[in-house]
Amino acid sequence: MWKFGDKEGLFFGFLRLGLVLYFLLFSFFTLKQKQDIRGVESNVVHSLQRSLIHPEKLYSDPESLPFHISQYSPAYYLAVELALQVLGIAPEQHLEIRFLGRGISLVFLLLAVAYLVLTLTIRLGQSVWIGLDAALLFLMATLPWYHLIRPDALLLLCLSGAVFHTLGRGTKNALFSGLFMALGLATKMNALFFLLPLGIAYLTERRFKDLALAALAGVLTIGALAMLFWLQGHRFDFLQANIVQGVKNGSNWFLALQKTYSYFLAVVLPILLVLVWLYLNRLRPTKQHASSLVLNLGLGLSVVLALAAGIKVGSAENYFFEPLFWSLLLLSSLRKPLVSDSGFALLLLVLGVSLGGQKATSYMTQYYIEEGKADSNPLHEEQIRFLTSALKEGDYFVAEDREISLGLPTHAAMVPVDIHYTTFREKTYSYQNWIDAMANGRIRYWVGSRLPDSLYGATWAGKFVEIKPGVWESQIEN
Description:
This protein is mainly α. Helix content is 62%, strand content 5%. The protein is built from 19 helices and six strands. The strands form two sheets. A four-stranded mixed sheet has the order 1-2-6-5. It has a two-stranded antiparallel sheet with strand order 3-4. The longest helix is centred in the C-terminal third of the chain and has 31 residues, at 341-371. The chain is globular, with a radius of gyration of 24 Å. The protein starts with 6 loop residues before the first helix and ends with a strand.
């Protein structure tokens, strides 16, 4: 199968080369994309802009001007912010921030995939080719989420690193396992998807010394991150109000069927059914029986948690990437002797080709549409120039288009519009300060195609006059 010149080997080689080239091409297009692709990247970009201008405002009061919400834990923000500071990128350079953040995410993704291959080969006894094929399938199945300026790629690195070191033995592996688990928790709250199974595995396998070492490493990691957070000028006052309350968006089963469960049914569930078939044939892992408990717990708990979290408004298919990760590990460890190396490699590669084409076609099309556009809208540039000259310290504007808010971050209010739609509806925060800011003229301008009658409980009709194309000025003196 693997010999050069063999027909079967050449066929597999062409499939692998095609997937690698496809991934590189997709990565190149994605890193250059000027607009949001998925997951409202602009919210992360604006959080980084605010952090560069006033570090203490990364997590500010969501109920006070400028009413900003940073939903994610700080580790990813810290990593990108440090890179921005080293490179001297200014807060107003929002495209550069976007491109650099995506590049950092891609580095995290490649490191995570390297850990996935190491887990399959070193911990689970698979061949290097099987490890690479599983990694290619995972890359194709998760496009484009891990390319984005979002914490997802760092979270994946923490998951893959924690699994690799938890399946290992000895002091060093336990310490690294705790480091990755703590870093994951400091990256995104759904790190609980893999913290729970790994922690339970330590307990049930009676690896109490390793658990103690992992816990020690985790505490030291959190302490070091907290110190770095403080040294960078950030504050903890409103951390919980942002990363806990800011994700209370309510539930919607219909949206879950559209945005999350559809991916589960099309991608994850078929693999789970294959695993059931393997279990019914009474197969067991052929190497390292201790790994079976970790993998079963990881898959079972991550599926349950993903199904529960998937009904939250704002959730998307990326909630099921952790179950996909676990299922690939478990499928690889259980498939012998019913499925040969050659058959398993073919399955992984064919699924990779299918999912890669299905997942990426729409984004490649979007790239070509966006690439033909100018870097910035001339009307938006004119509006930003006007706002820059007209706004005084303490005044704010609200813009319908994110490009304007990112172009003038110091005075932009209500930037995460999509988040406020849900937090206002769910009554997560009090919007009285917002209503007061409107009443006393602190919100000086609205920029958009038309003036709304009201927004988040504040009445706008009759209080603003259009003074320039797409710019309305408040008639209330502040």
